Amino acid sequence: METGSEDRMKVYFCGSIRGGRDDALMYRRIVEKLQSYGSVMTEHVSRAELSDRGEDAAAGDRFIHDRDVDWLRQADVVVAEVTQPSLGVGYELGRAVAMEKKTFCLFRPSSGRILSAMIRGADDGEQFVVSDYGEDEVEEVLDEFFCRLKRS
């Protein structure tokens, strides 16, 4: 997948914005790693300056929704950090499943939270994969997923 920029994999990254920004630093680490596999269409989700009020988009919520669904349609793969509960991330994952996108969800049990059964229960080991991880192993877990993705 190390080809010209026009052939680079398009990665759609999901992380909480209005649901809470507690994991923004982890999102940054994930996005930086994802950039080694392709173009991250939603890199802005990892920006530290993005607050839980979301983007300052003059066009409003409809613009953000339509733009993001369009990006989701274009994506080759979806990666979501699902530790921080988020209605938006759940919606994006539902749309990704409906679009039959390869989807990888990352969850940190050390958060003390319990992942939604609708996310964990969707794991089929191929099209939709959920992986528990620790902060010190996120890059390794992503490497493993993308290595399997290349082989399939």
Distance between the termini: 13 Å
* Radius of gyration, whole Å: 15 Å
Tell me the number of strands: 5
| Largest sheet: number of strands, sense, barrel closure | 5 strands, parallel
Strand content: 15-25%
Q: Helix proportion of residues, in percent?
A: 25-40%
Uncertain regions: pLDDT < 50 for 5+ in a row? 1-5
Order of helices and strands: EHEHEHEHEH
Output the number of helix runs. Answer: 5
Structural class category: alpha/beta
Strand order of the largest sheet: 2-1-3-4-5
Overall 3D shape: globular
Overall pLDDT, averaged? 92
Characterization of the model:
The chain has five helices and five strands; from the N terminus they run E-H-E-H-E-H-E-H-E-H. It is α/β, with parallel strands linked by helices and 152 residues long. Strands 2-1-3-4-5 form a five-stranded parallel β-sheet, sandwiched between helices. It starts with 8 loop residues before the first strand and ends with a helix. Mean pLDDT is 92; it is low at 1-5.
